[in-house]
Amino acid sequence: MTALTPIHVIGGGLAGSEAAWQAARAGMPVVLHEMRPARATEAHQTGGLAELVCSNSFRSDDAETNAVGLLHEEMRRCGSLILAVGDAHKVPAGGALAVDRHGFSEAVTAALEAEPLIAIDRTEVAGLPPEDWDSVIVATGPLTSPALAEAVRGLTGEAELAFFDAIAPIVHADTIDFSKAWFQSRYDKPGPGGTGKDYVNCPLDRDTYERFIHELLTAPKTEFKDWETSTPYFEGCLPIEEMAARGPDTLRFGPMKPVGLTDPRTGRRPHAVVQLRQDNALGTLYNLVGFQTKMKYGEQTRVFRLIPGLENAAFARLGGLHRNTFLNSPRLLDPRLRLKALPRLRFAGQITGVEGYVESAAIGLLAGRFAAAERLGLPAEAPPPTTALGALLGHITGGAEADTFQPMNVNFGLFPPLADVPTGKRGPRGPERKRLLSRRALADLDTWLGRRAAAE
């Protein structure tokens, strides 16, 4: 083995792209294997690297009181390609970081193609990687090819775990009726690249809302294959009709909640609201926030045109449903993301059981750094568990209960408690507690990064 032996990264999504970038930035040659466009998937539309197949939002960018916003900041400090490109291609989205999906993917692809230490191989890796690939990062995401998924399942002896994920529709902005819809963020809150008027809002009165819920529930849905019927949904990305089935007001307290919004035509808060978020830099496309769906295509057009302001909407993309695959990581992976049954394989991204674009890229960032450190003979030190990166890593590699493991977004519940709170005392609560956890995280991350720099 020599220092010039490449690290192989399988999968060119967010996790694989970030892993390849981090390993190359550490001085390691990388071969990035992406089977698209030679072999398509059920959800992707292009051959671009880091293509966003669902929402275009990286969620909250608040690094003080939101765990995913804190993860954004930690990744920026670690030199994340995904966050750097996301920042460069942001579009208005209130307090969230949302991106122009096409510009984002094109820029990630261009950066990786321009990196001299990265070679991109556009062929499928079917089955287990060759034995002479002694350092491999598997970042094939939730749509891992059947041959590779079967090989991993056979190697681990674990039954495959899976869940369904749903995609929200996108409409052309010039087909929205602004005599009924208006621009406003909740509570007029500005965010990255935003003004406080970043969302299109379509109001529903009580009668319109009740009719919409009725049509949503009775519309024909995508039928599952027999082998899919026991597959659960991920709670953080439920189809809208699944939410509606839980009760008539579920959507009014979920994606259709009207709080913080005022209809300028009436001066009052509406009964319910459908929000649309800008999907590209030109502002010509908007996606329906939280409207993942499993309705059949023709029904989607009919039902969504019942929403005031969308009566004549033209859809650039309709919603959809796809089956995601993930490992029982607490049982199968070691603390450095290596497969216990075959340590030359590391795993990264959604296949490890994290949920969300940013979380997937974060695990790719760590896998790339771990693989490079191992190759260079440096200690592969994990980030402290007090950081968002460390808390997420700890959860999937041992913190979660293996028997009930399900995909997880980053959240402050994964962080160790504040150390200076006396036993038996409540300590800070709410936003103040989150601020203290965030300050501790960033201080500990900077110390960790300083130690890494000294070691290198």
Please describe what this structure looks like:
Helix content is about 30%, strand content about 15%. The chain is α+β, with helices and mostly antiparallel strands and about 450 residues long. It has two domains: about 5-160 and about 325-455, FAD/NAD(P)-binding domain, CATH 3.50.50.60; about 165-325, Elongation Factor Tu (Ef-tu), domain 3, CATH 2.40.30.260. The two termini are about 20 Å apart.
Largest sheet: 6 strands, mixed
- Note the overall shape: globular
The order of strands across the largest sheet is: 6-2-1-7-17-16
Could you state the CATH homologous superfamily of the largest domain?
FAD/NAD(P)-binding domain
- Put simply, the count of helices is 12
Query: What's the mean pLDDT score?
Result: 88
Radius of gyration: 22 Å
Distance between the termini: 20 Å
Can you give the helix content as a percent range?
A: 25-40%
How many DSSP-defined strands?
Answer: 17
CATH topology of the largest domain: FAD/NAD(P)-binding domain
Q: How much β-strand is present in the residues? A: 15-25%
What is the quaternary state of this protein? single chain
